[in-house]
Amino acid sequence: MPKPKLFIPGPVDIAPETYAAMAEPMIGHRGKDFEELYADIQPDLKKIAGTSRNLYLSTSSAWGVMEAAIRNLVQKKVLNLCCGAFSDKWYGVAKSCGKDAEKIQVEWGEAIDPEAVRAKLAEGGFDTVTLVHNETSTGVMNPLKEIAEVVKSFDDVLLVVDTVSSFSAVPTPMDELGIDVLLAGVQKALALPPGLAVFGVSEAALERARTTEGRGYYFDFLEFEKADAANNTPSTPSIALLYALREKVHSIVEEGLENRYARHEKLNAMLREWGAKHGFENFAPEGHESKTLVCFKNNKDIDVSAFVKAVREKHNLLINGGYGKVKGLTFRLSNMGNETEESIQELINALDDVIPDFL
Ligand SMILES: *Cc1c(COP(=O)(O)O)cnc(C)c1O
């Protein structure tokens, strides 16, 4: 039996071209071949991120860089904007780094209110804010532009944004929005195998890092900056994943960013329509729905884990039965990465086939 095709919100299905790229011959990472590979990735990656500065390449999952942002930037106090599993955990990570941290916590399934951020920052004492743009656990897409505007209206407060499940699928223009650290793990919206994260760091964030103690080595922003000047990484990177990244960013620019955004919008609408047809409500509030996955409320009270199992057994497709404390109370379908109208229609046909047994 082949492995099921993944429609879970990460890791997602990998294109054959990606696997092929990863099989290119190994090279040494302290030589010209590697410098060319590194340099070849940058123009397209910068275009996708909307920044004039190179992005750094971290051989880690997203959490490596999420923790790094805390360790490099927080000197006074961080404000963590919490609305689901990943954003909530960032607060715990800040605490475990020994940093002073406060949070704005909303219910899972709600979005962050920019005005609440303004009120909290107005209390003073903060120098960093963390935001998860697309909270993959709840299918909520936070109002990035509005929150960025609020944060930017406070002097010396840096904004760190996790775009793990939105990068390249919706616009996240780093420079235009004044984002200080923009990061993404590669196994979700970018549809690469896990093990790599990409991140942009603003001048202001580098300036802050210069005077922050306890940055460590592996995730020290200044080490990345120094290595980047020579088209390199501080320590040995996952070269196979960089081959995959090069292939991927080239193919994204070839697809065209506007086309890619439109494709995600279209495929996401197809999934939402499927849910509406069977009476499932969105877990996200109207206007704050993710464009890369749907998280449905289990308002029909179906046996979610049996449903997921049946879709897998009958059709060899894998969907997700809810994350963390909303497991069973929600279920999620992903349209991120390489999905097409055909592949999403295949998923819908399978769901249509199985759902009558559960309603
Ligand atoms: C998956 C995910 C993460 C965590 O990624 P790891 O690869 O486990 O480090 C962080 N943020 C968001 C929004 C995610 O979806």
TrEMBL record:
Binding residues annotated for substrate, in chain numbering: R332
Transmembrane helix found in the keyword field: no
A Pfam family assignment: Aminotran_5
All copies of domain Aminotransferase class V, residue ranges: 26-322
Positions carrying N6-(pyridoxal phosphate)lysine: K188
Record's keyword terms, sorted: Aminotransferase, Pyridoxal phosphate, Transferase
Gene3D superfamilies, per database record: Aspartate Aminotransferase, domain 1 (3.90.1150.10), Type I PLP-dependent aspartate aminotransferase-like (Major domain) (3.40.640.10)
One GO molecular-function entry: L-serine-pyruvate transaminase activity
Cofactor(s) demanded: pyridoxal 5'-phosphate
GO BP annotation list: glycine biosynthetic process, by transamination of glyoxylate
PANTHER family: ALANINE--GLYOXYLATE AMINOTRANSFERASE, AMINOTRANSFERASE CLASS V
Sequence similarity: Belongs to the class-V pyridoxal-phosphate-dependent aminotransferase family.
The name this protein goes by in its record: Aspartate aminotransferase
Organism lineage: Bacteria, Pseudomonadati, Verrucomicrobiota, Verrucomicrobiia, Verrucomicrobiales
